[in-house]
Amino acid sequence: MDGFDVQAIGFVAPALIVDWKIEASALGPVFGAGLFGMLVGSMLLTMLADRLGRRPVLIAATGLFSICMLATAEAHSLSQLALLRFATGFGIGGVMGNAVALASEYSPQRQRASLLMCVSCGFTGGAIAGGLISAVMIPWGGWQSVFVVGGIIPLFIALVMYWRLPESLQFLALQRRDPEKLVQLLRKIAPDVDLIRGQHLAQADQVRKRGSPAMLFRDGRSPMTLLLWVVSFANLLNLFFLANWLPLLATRMGFGSSTAVLMGSTLQAGGLIGALVMGPLLDRFGFYRVLIPLFFIAGFVVAAIGQSALPIYVLYLVIFTAGICVVGAQPALNALASTLYPTEIRATGVGWSLGIGRAGAIVGPVVAAQLIGLNWSSQALFLAAGVPALLSCFTILALARVVRNRTLANPEG
After folding, report:
1. How many other CB atoms sit within 10 Å of the CB of residue 10?
2. 177 φ, ψ to 5°?
3. Whole-model pTM?
4. CB contact set of 92 (below 8 Å; sequence gap of 6+)
5. What are the residue ranges spanned by the domains of the chain?
6. Of the candidates 255, 394, 244, 227, the residue with the CA atom closest to the CA atom of residue 327
7. HSE on the CB side for 297, CA within 13 Å?
8. Hey, is 220 helix, strand or coil?
9. For helices 78-106 and 54-72, what crossing angle results, to 10°?
């Protein structure tokens, strides 16, 4: 539902423009407010989760963006809409990083990447489903109905999470505040293990300061953290450039509007399928052996999208491959981030990586708009978009070396 709600404003934009009789450019600040809210939420709410726990922050963040989505259906001005989109984005920003951290801490090592990819690709699935739902809902109930659906469903999910979602075992072990709750959860996972009341439960992590971004740069983590931020920034820049501008640039290349929309859907479908297929590969071969060649391929296929001389079936294949390599790679980066940090700062590490990436998500479409204003051709724009993908490739290569050297120097992490 976070994927649905992030894309909701894009789904309703055409109907909103007609209803409010405004120019399309007037929605620019509204789009930006939502992305900026996600940036802030990713950074602040994940820090809070490393102090208070994944469970309460996840439930509160989901409840917040649910209520804000419902309130957006009653917005009557652009200023109200922008404020509500910021608040919605703030709540959504607290979901992905904490969900990935919590799932990581419950996943067995041999299946961790696959399970985290499944969790993360729900975002892409929500974006795809949202377009289909909006196409049905807007003619029936107006643009407001999309926000009502996008608010009611996650509100129900928040209630279910309050009832059923467990706290992280590792977080509870670190806190040592509720040993009985920890024993109850452990018995569900390992009912055959005899747990004695008052028994000491050991964990590998040593707590110093929870939820602090400064911890991301201590104990030799600075190069690792900065490289992770660079690749997250570059990939989300590319992802949002393609998601926002591919249909429009396709029409500039001479394709019809229906073909342009289908190309955008092909990109997202490639991302969803790529994420699901990539999980087992990551478990078997590791993150770096998969992501390095993936981003290398991305650099070329993204650049090739602008080649209008390609046969249409080849162009669809190129776009589908770009979806696998760019959209599908983002859940892998989220999963990778969760493996690089200890429990005490895991949510902060994932959240700040996503937050820096959100800055790229803002920069990509804005820079593309400026270049279009300078009369850059579609071919030149896609060639330029291939550069961040290649940058991601070389950054992941450098990250692999840094992590390997750090592991050799400090085997205990």
Report:
1. 17
2. -100, -20
3. 0.79
4. 2, 5, 6, 37, 38, 41, 61, 65
5. 1-175, 212-413
6. 244
7. 16
8. coil
9. 150
Backbone angles phi, psi at 147, to 5 degrees: -70, -30
Residue 79 CB partners (closer than 8 Å, separation 6+): none
Output the CA torsion sign for 406, 407, 409, 412. Answer: positive
Element containing residue 405 per DSSP (H, E): helix 378-409
Fold match between 1-175 and 212-413? yes
Q: Does domain 212-413 have CATH number 1.20.1250.20?
A: yes
Supply 264's token pair: 């955008």
By three-state DSSP, how is residue 134 classified?
Answer: helix
Residues near 353 by beta carbon (within 8 Å), at least 6 away in sequence: 97, 228, 229, 232, 333, 334, 337
Scanning 165-286, the segments in alpha helix (DSSP H) are: 169-175, 179-189, 222-252, 257-285
Token pair listed for 364? 């990509």
Q: Give the separation between CA 70 and CA 84, rounded to whole angstroms.
A: 10
Q: List the end-to-end C-alpha distance of the chain, in Å, as a whole number.
A: 35
The yes or no reply on domain 1-175 and CATH 1.20.1250.20 is yes
Which amino acid belongs to residue 311?
P
Asked if residues 54 and 175 have their Cβ atoms less than 8 Å apart, the reply is no
Per-residue pLDDT of the chain (413 residues; tens, 9 = 90+): 888 887 787 778 878 888 899 886 787 788 888 888 988 998 899 889 888 889 999 999 999 999 999 999 999 999 999 999 999 999 999 998 888 888 888 888 888 888 888 888 788 788 778 777 887 888 888 889 999 999 999 999 999 999 999 988 888 887 776 777 888 888 888 887 776 655 555 555 444 455 578 889 988 899 999 999 999 999 999 998 888 778 778 877 888 867 777 888 888 889 989 988 998 999 999 999 999 999 999 999 999 998 878 899 999 999 999 999 999 999 899 889 988 988 888 888 888 998 898 888 888 877 887 888 888 888 999 999 999 999 999 999 999 999 998 887 776 55
* d(C-alpha 350, C-alpha 228), whole Å: 10
What residues contact 305, with CB distance under 8 A and at least 6 apart? 246, 315, 318, 319, 322, 382
C-alpha dihedral, 53 to 55 to 329 to 369, nearest 10°: -90
